[in-house]
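User: Could you go from structure to sequence for me? I need the amino acid at each position, not a summary. Structure tokens:
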């Protein structure tokens, strides 16, 4: 599947007048007002609304960028091999009326009536993508707490959090409306509960061993469970 970063819509109007107030860190805003203020701040590349409060992340470090690229590469390889599944990187997602995030990576089922998210008329993702992933270097506190609670509440079925400085990677899956840790197989490989064939050798990822990460993923993609998943998605395609 092809991947892309969704662009913010062109400036919106309010009663015939463009809102000129720029977006400011720490403001308490509705999601609609957050988007209008963002349109008045054209130089801004990243911003999130977390429980009604504006948060503007600091500049992205090389460590964050390299880790982010590795994780997205892994998820994108899976999406390319799985028709009906889309990977996205750092795109805005409208979660509810108080939360609009730019998760570092996500996977979503892009089949109507199957996936839990959709594309709005102005080209935004809305709802709960099946898998959301965050890479935390300076943001681990709100990623692990505020964001995690929102992802859990809206029903995102899996959440991955890579705390780079701590060499820690958590993979949660939703059970009875609550996140529980995903347990690895005996060989240390993690297998997604939502996306069959999405296999991850965590030790290889933390060691930035791209070849081994991809080798294990290829085995997952070649598995019977992945083939059956692709067939199920195709059978329900409109």
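Assistant: Here is the amino acid at each position, in order:
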């Amino acid at each position: 599947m092809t991947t892309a970063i969704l662009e913010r819509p062109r400036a919106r109007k309010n009663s015939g007048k463009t809102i000129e107030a720029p977006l400011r860190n720490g403001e308490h805003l509705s999601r609609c007002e957050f988007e209008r203020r963002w349109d008045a701040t054209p130089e801004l590349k990243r911003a999130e609304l977390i429980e009604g409060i504006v948060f503007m992340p600091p500049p992205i470090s090389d460590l964050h960028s390299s880790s982010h690229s590795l994780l997205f590469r892994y998820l994108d390889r899976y999406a390319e091999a799985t028709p009906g599944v889309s990977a996205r990187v750092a795109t805005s997602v409208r979660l509810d009326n108080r939360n609009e995030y730019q998760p570092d990576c996500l996977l979503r089922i892009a089949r109507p009536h199957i996936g839990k998210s959709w594309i709005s008329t102005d080209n935004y993702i809305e709802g709960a993508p099946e898998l959301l992933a965050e890479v935390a270097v300076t943001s681990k506190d709100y990623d692990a707490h505020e964001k995690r609670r929102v992802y859990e509440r809206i029903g995102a079925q899996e959440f991955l959090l890579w705390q780079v400085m701590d060499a820690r990677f958590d993979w949660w899956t939703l059970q009875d409306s609550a996140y529980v840790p995903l347990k690895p197989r005996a060989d240390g490989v993690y297998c997604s509960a939502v996306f069959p064939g999405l296999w991850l050798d965590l030790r290889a990822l933390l060691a930035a061993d791209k070849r081994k990460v991809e080798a294990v993923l290829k085995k997952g993609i070649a598995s019977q469970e992945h083939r059956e998943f692709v067939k199920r998605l195709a059978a329900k395609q409109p």
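One structural detail worth keeping in mind: The chain has two domains: 23-56, 62-235.
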